[in-house]
Amino acid sequence: MSDDGKLAENKLILLFLLQKMNLSLSNNEICQFALERNIMDYFNVQQYLSELSDADFLESFTDNGTTKYSITPEGENVLEFFQNRIPEWMRNAANEYILNNKNRIKSEYETVANYFPEINGEYLVKCAVYGIDGQQIMEVDVVVPTKHQAQIICSNWKKNVNTIYGTIFSSLIKD
Q: Which of 29, 40, 47, 73 is the most exposed, having the fewest neighbouring CB atoms within 10 Å of its CB?
């Protein structure tokens, strides 16, 4: 296969992964997929993501300091037209990755915890839980005096969100 054919194939598999996942994926998640399956190396992944974004086939955005990618309608059109050029083993590798990782990735999107410095030197901590449909279920905002406390709250929220959510909800509906 020519270098141009391999380049197109690699770009198409990235579009395929993002379309089938039906979620925005971080740069790390995309690299993990490509590297674990020896499909391409880190530098090629970065180059292809950049080129696909420049061509408006991918949209990138930053969320909590992490770059995430999603496929655009233009990318979907290109994929629909050229999807048959992706080797079956690559499609199978992508489908296997999705099957094994979608729930984990989705759950990471459903729990959010961030902190922001306030003018008076304190920190506003915002913690939220989202449903599968993306609707916010609960948000808890607290102000704390130190950055360290804000970081601890964010960490504990992410680790213990089910317990915390359950405790708050039970307390609120108790007669």
A: 73
